[in-house]
Amino acid sequence: MTYLDHAASTPLLPEVAEAMLASMKAEFGNPSSVHGYGRRAKQVVEDAREKVAAAVGALPAEITFTGGGTEADNLALKGPFGLIPGRHVVVSAIEHRAVLDTVEWLERQGAKVSAVAVGPEGIVDPLKVAAAVNSSTVIVSVMAVNNEIGTVQPIEEIVAAVKAVNPSTLVHTDAVQALGNLPVDVKLWGVDLASFAAHKLGGPKGVGALFVRNGVRLTPLIHGGGHERGLRSGTSNVAGIAGFGVAAEIAAREVHAKSEALLALRAQLLDGIRRAVPDAGVNGDLTTRIPGNLNVSIPGTEGETLLMLLDQAGIACSSGSACASGALDPSHVLLAIGTDRALAVGSLRLSMGRATTPDDVASLLEVFPDIVGRARRAA
Hints:
Structural class: alpha/beta
CATH class of the largest domain: Alpha Beta
CATH superfamily of the largest domain: Type I PLP-dependent aspartate aminotransferase-like (Major domain)
Radius of gyration: 21 Å
CATH architecture of the largest domain: 3-Layer(aba) Sandwich
Number of domains: 2
């Protein structure tokens, strides 16, 4: 199979697998235990915490390990309520469902929610975000990189605009698609909270992290033992965390070289698609986006049909967000940026990563004209 769905999940890096296996074999102790076995397991966790912190520009004490990016988003958004005056939250209209579903839950608990509209380029306007903030705004959440169309958001400018209106308002960014795809520096961004997930950068699934700036207080979601400095109780996934540390270290080290390679591959991919399907359209800004992402609409087709035919041809990709796979409704992100509903239904997200080669791109382009023709006949 040719794998072009790195935005959904990435292959486990060999170095990560090696670190995880070594941990599972040798560090089987509970990291909360005081004996030697526990201390060694605890050291594995703390070593990984240092690596993740270094990769995102944070202090180790500001990194809380979670069970994934979704849990990190939930902790970031639910945690401040009751600790900061106000009941208002601001998000962009193109956030991941992990954020949107969480704020919908908060709304049912009595919170007021403002969703900021986004233009056709898929870039969030800092001034529009700031205009939605008021004296009762507890938190603003805008993702660093959109998971569907790959657009990179001006997080530093958004933070500055929000704080100018209400310095007490926290700013969170879902940076799950950022780490490994662009340089990440949470201190430069100025955010108070940032979510990450290991499996988006060659690490294991089921492990994530939340950056919590020093001084920010959160109410934990999970109680029972006070692990992770009281923010996330439960015995640590030592092997998974070890793998996350290695993956984050590699991602930060290789981000520039990886970006150059992926830009060349994306140009090859887009040129081939336009030659095969001249009326294909690109969703979102083509320049202000991560190099490995290409989201296209194919007029006269349905995304699910395209996916099925591509899968039969040995090509793995996605239609809209992989987390919403199987849904009959078109992507909420594409609708939010003004894409025509018929075009949004016929969209494909082609996402490349560290392991993608020119041969992978060529494999897709070889079968693409025939598959689009068959999909159009089936529509």
